[in-house]
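Objective 1b of the project was to move from sequence-level analysis to a structural picture of ligand recognition. The entry below was assembled by the postdoctoral researcher (A.K.) and checked by the PI before modelling. It contains the amino acid sequence of the target and the SMILES of the bound compound, pyridoxal-5'-phosphate.
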Amino acid sequence: MTDLTKVVLQDSEIPEAWYNIQPDLPSPAPPVLHPGTHQPIGPDDLAPLFPMALIMQEVSQDRYIDVPGPVLDVYRMWRPTPLYRARRLEKALDTPAHIYFKYEGGSPVGSHKPTTAVPQAYYNAQEGTRRLTTETGAGQWGSALAFASAQFGLDCEVWQVAISFDQKPYRRTLMEIFGATVHSSPSNLTEAGRKILAMDPNSTGSLGIAISEAVEAAAGDPTTKYSLGSVLNHVLMHQTVIGQEALKQMELFGETPDLLVGCTGGGSNFAGLSFPFIKEKLAGKIDPTIRCVEPTASPSLTKGVYRYDFGDTLGMTPLVKMHTLGHDFIPDPIHAGGLRYHGMAPLVSHLKELGVVEAEAIGQVECFEGAVRFTRAEGIIPAPEPTHAIASAIREAERCRESGESKVILVALCGHGHFDMGAYRAFLDGNLEDFEYPEEKVREAMEKIPAVA
Ligand SMILES: *Cc1c(COP(=O)(O)O)cnc(C)c1O
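Corresponding predicted holo structure:
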């Protein structure tokens, strides 16, 4: 162990390959199915939406896939990212635990998302795509893809969930600065959007609806492709540079984590940090607890059901086996902490079923309380999403204070919260309440999910 507070790697130490966990899984994750035939899909089924390079990565059994040079060149703008020891937080908590955090907030848009947006834009540009479509909630993914599209000369069109479009105008401005076109979703521009608006003209939207719109816009135009910021295997794989860097940095600190903790919306930042550690765990070299943390308002891993469901609300995407709250899930408006997607990455869901990772749900008040303690000690304002990971780490550090155990905790701090002052304002004014997503709503939603034999 050292007395360092942070470990910063050199440009030359950015991992030159992504780690693909698929060949190392104790059993393979269930296949993705065609929404009509319920048969496993092939590469050609996905070709209207994604470039072939990404489709092949999605099903690859290669343990490592090289990061292309032009992608590394863009990564160098902010990678490698620093790993910190939260000494001041440890002191404030009076805990014998050692708390570390891997910080992704220094990227051009302030989160881990450009780490997949950049390769996605690159492969699309390579294969002749002219325009990318996508969805975004608060705008983190949309701004990452807008940034990446600008790097490779692509047009970028974003459907932003209506409630965020109205309530969080600054990310939209950021997307437009990067050159993207932004629509409020549901919109009149797509069949899917018109269908939802016909049912509910005041719909506040959801990620599932925005995905339907962005997919439809891409499917109808051969020079346009669709891009997803989480959930898919290739997205999780791109993020593994985070964990590969962190493995090396923890080694330089001279410590081995007993607990890794990350927030899970679709699973990408969690996978990015944890998969390289899971590789070591599955090989029997280390044995940390690996924990997903999600909101009680959107509890796909802790209350959702593990079964085949659509990735979007209108049922246009393939069927994937995942923990799901049902594809027509609409988050409660009181919830300020992000992580609002109805499903979970199939790889993360599979690892949960295998018992390799565990999951916990925490209410938003405790999350923001933890975030404020963290900020006062460490000076970084976390995005609402990683406040879940921080709250879980604080719970653990407090248990260590009681037991005297000195655990090593590694937290995925996947973004800063500079665009989320509205949520912090609500917390400081005492206007945040916890919301427990009701069990019976999950049961009701399961009745609308296709039965897959
Ligand atoms: C998008 C986002 C998330 C949620 O997505 P995951 O795929 O679960 O990582 C979490 N944190 C931040 C900062 C994000 O931008």
